[in-house]
Structure formats: structure tokens, C-alpha cells
Amino acid sequence: MHKPTIQDVARRAGVGVGTVSRVLNNHAAVRDSTRDSVLGAIAELNYTPNPHARRIAGGKSYTISVLLPVVTTEFYVRLLDGLEQAFQEARYDVAIFPLLDRSRLERYLGSHTLAYQADGLVMATYNLTQMFQSGTGIRPYSGPTVLVDAHAEGVDCAYMDNLLGGRLAGEYASQLIRQQGEGQQGEGQQGGRLYAVWVETELDQLFTTRVFDDRRSGFLEAVQLSGGRVSGEYVSSFDSLAARTVAAQLLDEAVLPATVFASADLLAGALLDEAQARGLTVGGELKIIGFDDQPWAQGRGLTTLHQPVEAMGYEAAQLLLARLSGEEGPARARRFEPRLIVRKSTGG
Amino acid sequence: MHKPTIQDVARRAGVGVGTVSRVLNNHAAVRDSTRDSVLGAIAELNYTPNPHARRIAGGKSYTISVLLPVVTTEFYVRLLDGLEQAFQEARYDVAIFPLLDRSRLERYLGSHTLAYQADGLVMATYNLTQMFQSGTGIRPYSGPTVLVDAHAEGVDCAYMDNLLGGRLAGEYASQLIRQQGEGQQGEGQQGGRLYAVWVETELDQLFTTRVFDDRRSGFLEAVQLSGGRVSGEYVSSFDSLAARTVAAQLLDEAVLPATVFASADLLAGALLDEAQARGLTVGGELKIIGFDDQPWAQGRGLTTLHQPVEAMGYEAAQLLLARLSGEEGPARARRFEPRLIVRKSTGG
DNA sequence: TTGTATGCGTTATCAC
DNA sequence: GTGATAACGCATACAA
After folding, report:
1. Helix crossing, A240-253 with B240-253: angle to 10°?
2. Which residue has the higher pLDDT, B278 or B138?
3. E strand segments, chain A
4. What is the pLDDT at residue A257?
């Protein structure tokens, strides 16, 4: 018993191979009744098309390469979920290329690798401009490319509006402080102070991203617009140890009551830990706002910004698929909006 | 100008396509002179074989799936280097599957994915037995499989002898203490105390590994054999924050002079940091031994165990390739030995 | 709307 | 040793 082929299906359904191919690829022009019988035969034989034969006949690889940073975060799991669902629906395989180190990028894009043979490329989170800048020896992939969780001129992209996210956090923080100011009358500091912890942006790095800068800009802008001011800003690298150290420093220096915005849940988590160690009442004298809505955020009651990551991945895939089916025209950018989730870390 | 095919090469070299295919695949029976002319034609035309056509004609996918944990460590970069080199030499593509979460394992092994279509599977670091245990709904991959950086009965594997590594550390630490004891006569503690920091083994986890347990067992065994004893043992999760906390605790409680074995460089690095913060003389009153020889270990002068990771990857690939070319027989296990690198953190 | 025939770029199997 | 040629499984242009 060999693996059933399209021939077997055709014979079984009493049709030609062309017809089977047509129902496989949704080529509308096929009568419902015959489509049903073909589908029936496929099911009975448990037939699955041979992807390699398909590739050689179609002259395409039906494969998409996804370049991904190696960061063990729920974010990328969700992003892949969105991407893979869309590509699967369109009968494309996705090959994942974890960018373990810099040399690997060049290798992946080299002409003899899987990535190069792909019909399209998805790049996550990177700064494309910097990545392909002259002098690095890296040359851009020649096929259609889409950026996800990043944006650049002249390239299709699906990105999260981190500027908006920061703004939402800033507006909410300002509002919290106003409310608190109304409650306890006569307080000079009118509702407590405002602090922020930022993620250090690594300069001169291939793996650089504007994500955190945008969150910062949005926040500062919103706070300023609402007439508030930030009493102290802290910077931490994206690392739990550094975050904890910075959290301790912040709580050493901060004047309570205070509201703190951390531009990543990783940093907010460290603040939560440090506050707990000091016996501070989170949600009361100390309010904390994070960003990411990581899986633990709900359990720990962290007010944070939730992002439609799967939707962003799905849409990025759609943009690429459109190009693959011949779409011309200028680059399109799809924007996605974070949403504030209020929990008890801000008294909600 | 279309992409040159094997036909073009044959024509150019004045031979048949069969001959071209033969030189491509090293099918010995071809005269040197004709091989040269074929190679010449290939170079002139800049010909690269179409992998899809190859796959369909050969009836194989010429692809190997590598299941990898998502841990940003030099270890996996080096492991991939070894694997990829071997597979490339044998004209196999490698597809990397980062195991972001548990659900992804099932999906990767599902019958409609790339991984399933691979001719062989490489699994890194995991506990195969636990992974495929009944009840998880995960069924083993049916093709030839090789384990790397792990070992199990009845499966080909290439693994690091972490037991030996631990033993080497234990012997060296014991030796250090004896030497020190001889130097300062009459000291009751005869050369100082011995401490150890272990990596916490996560139980009930898919992503479990025996690596750290082996390092621990080997160390304790060697120390006992040389008549020494461990004055204190500490446990930390594989996380820089936790490691620093544990390092601080250890240095709070330890009696100097002391020698500390950390079963991973990540933990040793935290000790280095904490010692520096306290103004302790590393290599003198405090000696530190790590495990892994991470890139920074040399610069910071950390005595540690170096592992032939690339060689292990390369050999794992060879084991799999042997099966792919029809090798029968019982499972083979290839053992690799860590090597102690003495640097100034132990006074070397 | 559907069946047939041709082509995709290799590898493998023959003869020579 | 080497050159024809038949698969491999599918998509597609063309004919019906």
C-alpha cells in the first residue's frame, strides 16, 4: 500500500486528476456534486497532497520563512499562532528561523538555504533599515517581505501602536493621580507622584527595536498633555535581575503615594516583587501599570496593556499572501491597538 | 534567463544529465576528467540544484527536523553549528523547530506539518521518555530519531558526560583545598570549606533535563571519594536574578577561605558579581568553579568546564545519517567529555 | 464544467 | 563510465 496520490483520488471519485487538483486549490469552476465526491474520495483514502510535487509543478516553494528573535516570551508564541493560522489556510508551510546570533542571519539569507527558497519572508520585531544597511554584508531578501511588530517605510508591515499604548498608560496614570488628589484634600503633592521605568534600548545592535521607545514617548506625551509631570525615570535592561535592582532603587527614592508605569511587564513584575518584600500596599499607596499582559499578569492583578498579537500576526500573513498572489502598489501598514486592562495593582 | 537546470549543465559540459546527477551525488563511477568538466559547467552557470525536484524524484524530503528549546545560550548556537555542518555535507536541509511551549510540540509532530515530512528528527536536551509518555496525547515521530545532549535507552544519542564534568570539578576542588591546607599549617579547617550551587530541576515539566543532576552527582561523588565534604549546598533556578540572590546568601553564610562550585556559568557569574560587590578576592580567599565555558568566562577569568558542543552536534548528525542510509542494529550512544579550563578564579 | 496531455527538475534504471 | 529515458506527483493549458 503506497501513499495515495492524486491519481488514486481521481480514479476513486470517477473524475480526472485536473478536477481533483481544482477542488484542492479552490478553483471555483467545479460543480458542487463533483466537488463533494472528490472530497469524499479524499477522505476515504486519507489522501494528503505531496508538497514536493506541488512545489515542482507549481514552480513555487509554497513556503514562508519567518525570522524570529529567540526570546522565550508568550508574545512570540501568540505571534506565531496568528501567522501560522493564516498561512495554513492558504496552504503555505512556514519555516521558522530563530535568529540565535548575528552570523546566523547572513547564513539564513544566503542563497543556498531554505530561507532563500521561500516565496516570502516575515521578519519580526527587527529594525529592517538597520539590518540591511550597507556595509554589513547582508543583502536584502529579494522576494516579498512583510514586517511584523515593527514598521519601516516602503515595506508592508503589521505593527502594534506602542505610541498609543504608552499614551493610554499616561492618560490613565494621570487620571489616577487626579482622583487621588481629590480624595485627600490639601495635600501639596495633589495625589502623589508619578514614576516610570523604561527598557534600555540597546544601541549598535542588530536586534534593536523601537517598541520600547514608542511606549516611552507616548506615555510622556500623554502625561504632559494632562498637565502632569514625571518625578523620576529609571532605566533597566530587559532582564529580571537588572529589573529587580532598578525596582529597589526606585522604591528607595520614591515618595509615596506613587504611581509607577513600567514599559514592560517584566519590569512591572520586579516592582511587584520588591514592593511585596517591603510590605507596601500595591494598588493603594503604590500603584503599578505594566505593559504586555503576560500570562501571570491576571493572577497577580497587574493593570497592564493587552495587545492583539495573534490578530497582528494573522494580518501580517494576509499582507504577504496578497503580494504572493500578484498584488502591486505601495506598501501597506496595518496598525493594531493595545487595550488597557485595569486590575487591582492600580486599585481597580 | 531562467534559472539553469541540470539539463543546461549537461549540455554545457557535453555530457548527459545522468552524469551530472552522479557528480552531484558523489556516485564514484565517473571519470575524473568528466567530473571536472561538469564541475566547471556548474561553476560557470552558477547552477544550484532544485531541491524540490530532487525531493520528488528521490522520494525523500532531504530534510531533517531539529527540535530545540528556546533558550538564548551559546550552547545551542554551537550545537546547531555542528548539526548543520554535518547535514549540509550530506546535502540535507535542516528545519529548526523552536519548542516555544508544550502545545507546539504536538503541532510540530502532527501529520500535516513540515516536521512530520522530514526524513529524520533530532531532539535536543529533552527527556524523551517523559516527552512521549502515554497520556500526553503526543505520539512519537515514526522516522529515525536521534537525541542530542540527552540520552535514553533504545535511541541513538550523542550526549555530554556531565557526570564526568561534575567529577572533574569535584576532584579539582578537593585538590585545591588540600593544597591550600598544606600552605597554611595548623588551620583546623585544613584549606578552607567547600560549597556548591545547583540548578533547580523543574519537576513535572516537559522541558526537563538530567544535565544538572548529573553534574551534581559527579561532583558529590568525587568530593566524597577524595575524603572531603561539602559545607553547604544552595539551589537556584536558571535565572540571573535568582542566581544573584542565592550568591548573596551563600556569601553571607560561607566561612572563608572557600571554594565554590557552581553547576552552570550563569550561577558562577552571579557569584563573581556578588564577590566583586563585596570586595572579595576571587582566586584567593574565594575560589570559584563554573560549568559551560560561556563566551565571557575567559574574559572574566572563570575556571570552568568546556564542552565539545559542536563535535557532539556533528556526531549526532552522523548517527542519524547512518540510519537514513539504511543502517540497522541496536541504538548507539556517543559520549563526549567536558574538559576543565583553569583560570584565575581558582588562582590559576 | 471537466478530462487529457504536457511540463516541472531531479534521481534511478537501464542499456551501451 | 556514460547517455538515454522512465518515473516521481502535481498544476495547468488546452481541448472537449
Report:
1. 70
2. B278
3. 63-69, 93-99, 120-124, 145-148, 156-160, 193-199, 232-236, 258-262, 286-289, 304-306, 333-336, 339-341
4. 93
**Which chain A residues touch B95 with a CB distance below 8 Å?**
95, 114
- Quote the pLDDT of residue A72: 66
* Closest residue, CA to C1' of D5: B18
CA-nearest residue to A50 within chain B is B56
Report the half-sphere exposure of A220 (CA within 13 A, side-chain side): 12
Collapsed DSSP state (helix, strand, coil) of residue A236? strand
pLDDT value, residue A327:
86
C-alpha cell at A51: 508538497
Pairing of strands B304-306, B339-341: antiparallel
Residues on B contacting A at a C-beta cutoff of 8 Å: 48, 50-53, 55-56, 61, 68, 70-72, 76-77, 80, 93, 95-98, 100-101, 104, 111-114, 117, 239-241, 243-244, 270
Residue A341 pLDDT: 97
> Which of the residues in chain A have pLDDT under 50?
134, 137, 186-189, 204
Helices (H) and strands (E) in chain B, counts: 14, 12
Looking at per-residue pLDDT, the higher value among B334 and B150 belongs to B334
- Global pTM reads 0.84
Contact between residue A305 and residue A346 where contact means Cβ atoms under 8 Å apart: no
Run of H or E residues at B63 = strand B63-69
Calpha distance B348→B345 (Å, rounded):
7
